[in-house]
TrEMBL record:
This is RNA polymerase sigma factor 70 region 4 type 2 domain-containing protein. It comes from Sphingomonas psychrolutea. Residues 48-99 form the RNA polymerase sigma factor 70 region 4 type domain. Pfam families: Sigma70_r4_2 (PF08281). The keyword Transcription applies.
Amino acid sequence: MYRIMRNAWIDTTRARSRHGQTFVDEEAGLAVGDAGDKQIEAVVELGNVGRAMQSLPADQREAIALVLVEGFAYKEAAEILGVPMGTLTSRLVRGREALMTKLGEAA
């Protein structure tokens, strides 16, 4: 009987020490992980922008990609596309308006 009681006491002591090593306070667990809602929203919004860009005519899409995405100056983008600066500007204006309309519908 003594041996059984001794083994039960050892098992209980080991369990308590493992419990302290395995489990932490609830407050410490609150900081673990990320809800991910902001990341999910960003992915969805990026998909919306991509679909809106694909729906634009090719000339507007190219102008927006060069100026707004790649960061080229208007003059450089006009040279790359081989169009006058006024043409590039009008494509940008129409493209931006179309994007804002399409993205407004997606929201």
